[in-house]
Amino acid sequence: MPIGHVSLPTTPSTYKPMRDFYLAALKPLGYTAYFEKEGVFLGLQRNRDPDFWLHGGSAGSNPSEGERKLEEMTLVDPKLTAEENRKRIGQGRTHVAFSVAGRGEVEGWYRAAVKAGGIPNGEPGERDYVKGYYAAFVLDPVGNNIEVVCFNPWWMKLLNAAPGVAIAVAGAVAGQVALGYAKGAGWI
């Protein structure tokens, strides 16, 4: 079962930088704002359902939660590298990966995310995890590791092509059977 949505925490001081970053960085992937209660939460959608949210530390989206407070977050320093920022703010942030269909989308997202203030954490390229895994990474304003990935190995391309290949083979076999029958019946 796929995940319905993901929500990243923000705080009053980090809400606006996070909001501005994600609106700009996710635009190349087709994301738009779905619903926002300024300073409290922002829902973003790529298709018809909002699947990516930011939530602030004051009154939550669920009234039964009442007031809740999040520990203040430190913003990344744009003058520092990803490694230096992780040492400065800690390693315990979230990793979120967005899937796309092609390598060009990975590259376009990476350029937009860096332009929006993301800290480069892995330029677009094939990773050594597994053949066909093409991804890019940036740290968002509070140090979450955000990834966009195109995973399209040869065997997945083959599986995706399999229905079309099976139909073509079945058609060719049926044609040969019909031709043999027609010859045997003296029609040809």
Report on this model:
The protein is α/β, with parallel strands linked by helices and 188 residues long. The protein folds into two domains: 147 residues, Roll (2,3-Dihydroxybiphenyl 1,2-Dioxygenase, domain 1); 33 residues. A hairpin with a 6-residue loop joins strand 6 and strand 7. It is elongated. The chain starts with 5 loop residues before the first strand and ends with a helix. This is VOC domain-containing protein. Pfam families: Glyoxalase.
Topology:
Blueprint: E1 6-9, H1 15-25, E2 32-37, E3 41-45, E4 50-55, H2 82-89, E5 95-99, H3 103-115, E6 119-126, E7 133-139, E8 145-151, H4 154-184
Parallel strand pairs: 1-4, 5-8
Antiparallel strand pairs: 2-3, 3-4, 6-7, 7-8
Task: Give short descriptive properties of this protein.
alpha/beta, 2,3-Dihydroxybiphenyl 1,2-Dioxygenase, domain 1, 2 domains, 4 helices, 34% helix, elongated, Glyas_Bleomycin-R_OHBP_Dase, VOC domain-containing protein, VOC_core, Glyas_Fos-R_dOase_dom
Class of secondary structure makeup: alpha/beta
Q: How many alpha or pi helices?
A: 4
**Gyration radius, in Å:** 24 Å
User: Biggest sheet, in brief?
Assistant: 4 strands, mixed
Q: Which sequence of strands runs across the widest sheet?
A: 1-4-3-2
Low-confidence stretches: none
CATH architecture of the largest domain: Roll
Strand segment tally: 8
In the CATH hierarchy, what is the superfamily of the largest domain? 2,3-Dihydroxybiphenyl 1,2-Dioxygenase, domain 1
What fold name stands as the CATH topology of the largest domain? 2,3-Dihydroxybiphenyl 1,2-Dioxygenase, domain 1
